[in-house]
Amino acid sequence: MSITTEQVEHVAKLARLRLSEEEKALFAGQLSKILEYVEQLKAIGTEGVDHTASGLDQPGLLREDEVRPSLGAEAATANAPEAEGGTFLVPKVIQER
């Protein structure tokens, strides 16, 4: 499967990205290669193969959940530049339109 520069332009527009003509050509080639590889993977027979969540065949690697002592809010914010009531105070970053 081949990706065209027009398709790259469409995706770039959706993502609100500005791409140069060189970048569009580069990304079209790279995305086409990725899709070709996916097609190769689709050709591999996977019937009868169990789904896996991990490539490791070692059950029980995760520890059991247990309650442990942790820092309190006051201790966690003790070295913060600004804190109040156990919470971090940070500058407002949302701008009005």
UniProtKB/TrEMBL annotation:
Species source reads: Nitrospira tepida
A Gene Ontology BP annotation from the UniProt entry: translation
Identify the stretch(es) annotated as Disordered.
70-89
List the biased-composition ranges (Low complexity): 72-86
Q: Recorded E.C. number(s)?
A: 6.3.5.-
- Subunit relationships: Heterotrimer of A, B and C subunits.
* Cell inner membrane as UniProt keyword: no
Known role? Allows the formation of correctly charged Asn-tRNA(Asn) or Gln-tRNA(Gln) through the transamidation of misacylated Asp-tRNA(Asn) or Glu-tRNA(Gln) in organisms which lack either or both of asparaginyl-tRNA or glutaminyl-tRNA synthetases. The reaction takes place in the presence of glutamine and ATP through an activated phospho-Asp-tRNA(Asn) or phospho-Glu-tRNA(Gln).
Q: Name one GO molecular function term.
A: glutaminyl-tRNA synthase (glutamine-hydrolyzing) activity
Query: Which top-rank group of organisms is this from?
Result: Bacteria
The yes or no answer to whether the keyword Protein biosynthesis is present is yes
In terms of NCBIfam families, this protein maps to: gatC (TIGR00135)
What protein does this entry describe? Aspartyl/glutamyl-tRNA(Asn/Gln) amidotransferase subunit C
- Similarity annotation: Belongs to the GatC family.
Q: What is the enzyme's main class?
A: ligase
Q: Which UniProt keywords apply?
A: ATP-binding, Ligase, Nucleotide-binding, Protein biosynthesis
Q: Which InterPro entries match?
A: Asp/Glu-ADT_sf_sub_c (IPR036113), GatC (IPR003837)
Chemical reaction(s) catalysed: L-glutamyl-tRNA(Gln) + L-glutamine + ATP + H2O = L-glutaminyl-tRNA(Gln) + L-glutamate + ADP + phosphate + H(+); L-aspartyl-tRNA(Asn) + L-glutamine + ATP + H2O = L-asparaginyl-tRNA(Asn) + L-glutamate + ADP + phosphate + 2 H(+)
